[in-house]
Amino acid sequence: MVLVMVLVMVLVLVMVLVMVIVIVLVLVLVIVLVMVLVLKNSFFHYYHQYFSLYTIHHHYSLSLYTNHQSPFTISHFLSSLLHVPLSFQ
């Protein structure tokens, strides 16, 4: 009897947890969708700007690094990541 009650309790707890997780996921999805719909134009504009700046910077860095070792070093990658976002502020 006790085992059956414990099993039922565990099942109920698992069901409640799954329900909560599903509800949270649905809420997050709805929020993300709303954000994307609201910010779509500005986000794509920003992303396009960022991407073009990144490619320009990347080619510039590549031309600088051609005389040295392989251009695809970790430091080069990090410098590309660090320098580009700073140009927005």
Q: Could you describe the 3D structure shown?
A:
Helix 1 packs across helix 2. The chain starts with a helix and ends with a helix. The C terminus is likely disordered. The chain has a domain of 27 residues. The protein is elongated, with a radius of gyration of 25 Å. It contains 2 helices and no strands. With 89 residues, the protein is mostly helical.
Q: What coarse outline follows from CA principal-axis ratios? A: elongated
Structural class: mainly alpha
Q: How would you spell out the order of helices and strands?
A: HH
* Oligomeric state of the chains present here: single chain
Largest sheet: none
Q: Total helix count?
A: 2
Mean pLDDT: 71
Portion in strands: under 5%
Portion of residues in helices? over 70%
Distance between the termini: 67 Å
Task: Give the total of beta strands.
Answer: 0
Give the C-alpha Rg: 25 Å
- Uncertain segments: 65-71, 84-89
Task: Describe the structure in brief.
The chain is an all-alpha fold and about 90 residues long. It is built from two helices and no strands.
